[in-house]
TrEMBL record:
Signal peptide: none annotated. It comes from the Bacteria. Residues 18-112 form the Thioredoxin-like fold domain. InterPro entries: FAX/IsoI-like (IPR026928), Glutathione-S-Trfase_C_sf (IPR036282), Glutathione_S-Trfase (IPR040079), Mito_Protein_Transport_Metaxin (IPR050931), Thioredoxin-like_fold (IPR012336), Thioredoxin-like_sf (IPR036249). CDD domains: GST_C_Metaxin, GST_N_Metaxin. This is Glutathione S-transferase family protein.
Amino acid sequence: MITLITFAPSFGQIAASPFCVKAIWLLNMSGEDWQREDSTDPRNMPKQKLPAIRVDGQVIADSDNIRAFLESRGADFDGGLSEMEKGSRAFIRMAEEHIYFHNVLARWGDDDVWPVIRDTYFAQIPKPLRGFITGKLRKNLLTGMKTQGLGRLSAQERLERLEPDLQAITTRLWQGPFLFGDMPTAADASVAPMLAGLRATPGNGLAKMRIAGDRMLCRYIDHCQNMLDMPQVYDVTSTAVSEPLCA
Ligand SMILES: N[C@@H](CCC(=O)N[C@@H](CS)C(=O)NCC(=O)O)C(=O)O
């Protein structure tokens, strides 16, 4: 049995981190038996981040490493894809190395949203200490976002930077219910949680409102989220046919 160490659910998402949601997708798609163990503190994890899995006494951290581990046991997340379509890796990088940071800034960088994030993610820290401890964490994180680059852009500039990514995703969704056809692939496991996380962010930030107002993106997110509640529908070993998204 594989144990997924994950952040707890929040804001209607099965896990607070889109990378943890991705790991849940991959575990479900792999057909492996797994259980979750919620954690609030990743500091004792090999990469000081979540998700991680524990299996046979070994801890494997990072969702990409989790993917590689599941593939080493026979999972084939991109089974139906041609060699050309396996360029879907680029969508994964776009989601994880770009859209994700929009998510981070929407949550940690917006003064109106931050108090909700603080009191949700760090509820276990006693109130008198919470502001002080989380204030330092927030400052460090926002410094990191300046280094990354997006943290130097205004919310409007960030929205303009995000737009072509959303267009690329939408263009794919005109072709079928998932990014690469009728069945979910690893690209959906990364892209859908990032979009869902942005849409689920408290407040009315520009990126959230852009996604929440896009019918096709919302149908895609909803479709994917429903599947997380019904893993048998998208277990790659199952023959169940999913409902078309854009019929
Ligand atoms: N590349 C990693 C990214 C994981 C990640 O960034 N996790 C964040 C949550 S979204 C985390 O654990 N942050 C805790 C911290 O930085 O202290 C993966 O794919 O698993």
